Structure to design on (256 residues):
C-alpha cells in the first residue's frame, strides 16, 4: 500500500543519511507532494551540514590551545560598551570538550528568541559560567574601557573552575592566565560566541527589569542605546540613576 504524503513526511523527519533506502525510494516517487518533501529534506540537510562545518571551524582556537596542554579554556566577551544607560556585562564560559552547539555565533547576529534558546543550551553544555557586571556609576568613575576590563575580570573570578587559558574578543587582561586576543572573536571562537550570548541575554534581562521601574524610557526596546525614543524620553523626563553621566549627550543634558 502506498504511503500518504503525511506519512512520508513523518518518516523523512527522522532520516539523517543521504544513503537511506527510504529517501532513495522517495526520490523515485513522482508525486509532486513527495518531490517537494524530498527537496525540503535536502535543503535542511545542507543547512545542517553548513552549521556543522561552521561549528567545527569555530573550534580551531580551542583545539590549538588543547594541543598546547590547556584544558580549561574560557571564552570571554562583553556587552554594553556603547549604551547611554545600564551596566556593562561580561561573561566567561568554559564549554565541555564534547559540546556541540551548531549555529552558535556572535550574539549580535542572532534574534532575541534564538539567543534565549542558545542561552539554555550553553548552560547545559558548559563546565562553568561566570558573569561580571559593572554599574553606570563605576563606568563614570573609571571610564568604559577600564570598566569593561573589570567586568571581564569579575566574570573570570565568578567561574566555579579556574581556567588555564583565556580566549578574548579583541581585549587583553592583566591576569596571570595565558590568553589570546582574537579580532572579531565572537564570530571566530565558539567559546567567545557562547560568552557573548550569556552576556547579551543577561544584560537584556537587566534592562527589562529597569524598564519596569522606568517604563517611560522604553529600556526594554532599545536596551539603553541612544535611539530617538530614548533621547526624547531623556529630554522630557531627565536622567535616572541608571544613566551613564559621563557619556554624551547625558553629560550635556546635566550641564544645561
Amino acid at each position: 500500500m502506498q504511503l500518504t504524503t503525511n506519512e512520508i513526511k513523518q518518516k523523512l523527519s527522522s532520516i539523517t543519511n543521504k544513503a537511506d533506502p527510504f529517501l532513495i525510494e522517495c526520490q523515485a516517487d513522482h508525486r509532486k507532494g513527495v518531490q517537494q518533501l524530498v527537496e525540503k529534506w535536502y535543503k535542511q540537510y545542507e543547512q545542517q551540514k553548513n552549521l556543522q562545518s561552521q561549528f567545527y571551524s569555530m573550534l580551531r582556537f580551542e583545539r590549538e590551545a588543547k594541543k598546547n596542554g590547556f584544558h580549561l579554556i574560557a571564552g570571554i566577551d562583553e556587552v554594553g560598551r556603547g549604551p547611554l544607560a545600564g551596566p556593562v556585562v561580561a561573561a566567561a564560559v568554559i564549554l565541555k570538550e564534547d559540546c556541540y552547539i551548531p549555529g552558535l555565533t556572535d550574539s549580535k547576529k542572532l534574534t532575541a528568541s534564538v539567543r534565549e534558546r542558545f542561552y539554555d543550551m550553553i548552560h547545559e553544555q558548559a563546565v562553568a559560567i561566570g558573569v561580571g557586571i559593572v554599574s553606570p556609576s563605576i563606568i563614570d568613575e573609571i571610564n568604559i574601557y577600564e570598566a569593561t576590563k573589570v567586568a571581564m575580570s569579575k566574570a573570570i573570578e565568578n567561574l566555579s573552575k579556574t581556567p588555564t587559558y583565556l580566549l578574548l574578543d579583541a581585549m587583553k587582561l592583566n591576569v596571570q592566565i595565558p590568553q589570546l586576543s582574537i579580532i572579531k572573536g565572537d564570530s571566530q571562537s565558539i567559546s567567545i560566541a557562547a560568552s557573548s550570548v550569556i552576556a547579551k541575554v543577561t544584560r537584556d534581562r537587566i534592562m527589562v527589569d529597569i524598564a519596569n521601574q522606568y517604563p517611560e524610557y522604553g529600556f526594554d526596546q532599545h536596551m539603553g542605546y541612544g535611539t530617538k525614543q530614548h533621547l526624547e524620553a531623556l529630554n522630557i523626563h531627565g536622567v535616572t540613576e541608571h544613566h551613564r553621566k559621563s557619556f554624551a549627550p547625558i553629560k550635556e543634558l546635566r550641564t544645561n
In short: The beta strands are 73-79, 88-95, 126-134, 165-169, 179-182.
